[in-house]
Amino acid sequence: MKTPKKRPVEGGEPPRLITTSQAARMLAVSPRTILRMGEDGTIPPPIRIGPHFLRWRLSDIENLIDRK
Question: Quick one: which of 6, 26, 37, 48 is 20 to 30 A from 66 by CA?
Answer without folding.
Answer: 48
